[in-house]
Amino acid sequence: MSQQFDVIVIGGGPGGYIAAIRAAQLGFKVAAIDEWKNAAGGPAPGGTCTNVGCIPSKALLQSSEHFEFSHKHLAEHGVKVSGVELDLPTLIGRKDTVVKQNNDGILYLFKKNKISFFHGRGSFVSATDAGYEIKVSGAKEETLFAKQVVLATGSNARALPGTPFDEINVLSNDGALRLGAVPKKLALIGSGVIGLEMGSVWRRLGAEVTILEGLPTFLGAVDQQVAKEAKKAFDKQGLKINLGVKVGEIKASDAGVSIAYTDAKGEAQTLEADKLIVSIGRVPNTIGLNAEGVGLKLDERGAIVVDEECKTNLPGVWAIGDVVRGPMLAHKAEEEGVAVAERMAGQHGHVNFNTIPWVIYTSPEIAWVGKTEEQLKADGVAYKAGSFPFLANGRARALGDTTGFVKFIADATTDEILGVHIVGPSASELISEAVVAMEFKASAEDIARICHAHPSLSEATKEAALAVDKRTLNF
After folding, report:
1. If you average pLDDT over residues 66-85, what whole number do you get?
2. Is the pLDDT of residue 1 over 90?
3. Do 118 and 213 sit in the same domain of this protein?
4. For the segment 168-201, what is each residue's pLDDT rounded down to a tens digit?
5. What does the buried/exposed string (b/e) look like for 373-394 if buried means 16 or more CB atoms within 10 Å of the residue's CB?
6. What are the binding residues?
7. Minimum mean pLDDT among 64-68, 251-255, 311-315: which range?
8. What is the domain range of residue 371?
9. Rounded Cα gap, residues 64 and 72, in angstroms
10. Distance CA 159, CA 172 (A)
11. Which residues of this UniProt protein bind NAD(+) (predicted)?
12. Among 280, 300, 320, where does a domain finish?
């Protein structure tokens, strides 16, 4: 006999576990299903983000920054050190500890909110007018039933055609996070978020890193003034970024990986590397869900088709996060998870795609929200822009990190903020002020008139808002 619930959530990543918690807060009897396993075979909820994405990559980025800082910059602060060595097993072990702390935290939250957790793969068995029967395939097989189902099954790394991941020489984000030794030569295909972050980690730890990017423009989705500043910084650091290439045959052997490609000039080249990380995007994960068995509609990419409220074509079935349209971002999934739970309760869930922030956690960090200049020009929107460099910011000078700037774009007539773009220290934190401002339809003048603490990096935000009206005070 099936165990009865009001809501079943399949997937325990940021979208799924947050949807389950919010539904439980609203009085629903909730079951959460997640199959991710830790090294011991136990449950490891949190999805790609917690296990092989956002969380472990940030842990490695932090550790690698400490390593490089101790080598190259401590002396500037009057701190003399010698004999600094890399202990990679400890560095990776710290990352694993951070991941486990997050896994355990989610399990605690399930218990706190009286959510029944099932460790295994969830799939549809049948659909009736009363609801849906869901099978959990794991160490112990279970059958659950609920009127409402939330699908939050996430995404998988996209492999190059004909070159599957072996996680030994040809690596996805998973393998890139658990290398046993620093490769002498590391190749990456794709200069997006994962490529730049993983390239940065292993470059700091001693690898010679070369990135091959098929597009002719670096970070094409980013405001190009920001992208050019970032590219200049990455070039200076030693990241070799080749744009406009066409990747050909890839040969992997015990000796390493050989990548044939055509460069931007049309000339044939070969890149020899010890390891290859492929970061060319991600694909929606509906494997084993038995979507066809209940008539769940998927699009040509394999994503679950939903409307603006995240409803699928099946009554009572919702889908959120990477497995549906929109940006594949953990915080986007979380917002959709909360919104869906509230909609199930008859409330009006809120997700504003225009104010979802984006972040690349390199050094310098890159963060933005809203429209770029290029998008506004293409849309024929009249705007005005202003920027302020961290070089003129007192706190940035004290930190010893003055790369980059803050840029504001506002409507030429109303002064409403249309986009904010940051490249520089703590961009991931500074962007939140812009998100709040845009949610409240603030003008650049509103931010320019707000008192910001001195000295702080956030003063650069105020000064960039002032620059929209060409009245910066410190530059």
Report:
1. 94
2. no
3. no
4. 999 999 999 999 999 999 999 999 999 999 999 9
5. bbebeeeeeebbbbbbbbebbe
6. 58, 122, 153-155, 190-197, 213, 281, 322, 328-331
7. 251-255
8. 355-468
9. 12
10. 8
11. 190-197, 213, 281
12. 280
Instruction: List residues forming the annotated binding site for FAD.
Output: 58, 122, 153-155, 322, 328-331
Summarize pLDDT for 316-364 with one digit per residue, the tens: 999 999 999 999 999 999 999 999 999 999 999 999 999 999 999 999 9
Residues 105-127 have pLDDT tens digits of: 999 999 999 999 999 999 999 99
Alpha-carbon torsion, ordered 453, 420, 398, 57, to 10 deg: 120
Q: Phi/psi at 30 (nearest 5 deg)?
A: -120, 140
CB-based contact 336:320 (threshold 8 Å): yes
Residues 449 and 465 sit within 8 Å (Cβ to Cβ)? no
Q: Are residues 151 and 299 in the same domain?
A: yes
Same domain? For 102 and 199 the reply is no
The arithmetic mean of pLDDT across residues 214-233, rounded, is: 97
Tell me whether residue 142 is in a domain. Answer: yes
Q: How would you write 349-383 as a 3-class SS string?
A: CCCCHHHCCEEECCCCEEEEEECCHHHHHHHCCCE
Share of the chain above pLDDT 70, in %: 100
Q: How far apart are CA 344 and CA 332, in angstroms?
A: 18
> Environment class of residue 428 by beta-carbon count within 10 Å: exposed (0-12), middle (13-18) or buried (19+)?
middle
Residue 475 has pLDDT above 90, yes or no: yes
Q: Are 280 and 190 in contact, with CB atoms under 8 Å apart?
A: yes
Answer whether residue 162 is part of any domain. Answer: no
* Mean pLDDT along residues 233-240: 98
Percent of the chain predicted with pLDDT > 90: 99
- CATH at residue 399: 3.30.390.30
pLDDT score of 139:
87
- 164 within a domain of the structure (yes/no): no
Which residue ranges are tagged as binding site for NAD(+)? Answer: 190-197, 213, 281
Cα–Cα distance measured from residue 286 to residue 294, given in angstroms and rounded to the nearest whole number: 13
**Residue 435: which of 281, 332, 313 has the closest Cα?**
332
20 and 129, same domain (yes or no):
yes
* Domains held by the chain: number: 3
Asked whether residue 273 falls in the same domain as residue 298, the answer is no
Name the active-site residue from 66, 73, 350, 454: 454
Same-domain status, 294 and 364: no
348 tagged catalytic: no
User: What does pLDDT average to over the chain?
Assistant: 97
Residue 474 resides in a domain: no
| Amino acid (1-letter code) at residue 36 | W
Among 319, 351, 383, identify where a domain stops: 351
- Residues 134 and 8 placed together within one structural domain of the fold: yes
The CATH number assigned to the domain holding 210 equals 3.50.50.60
Assess whether 100 and 46 both reside in one domain.
yes
pTM beyond cutoff 0.90: yes
Instruction: With cut-offs at 50, 70 and 90, classify the pLDDT of residue 155.
Output: very high
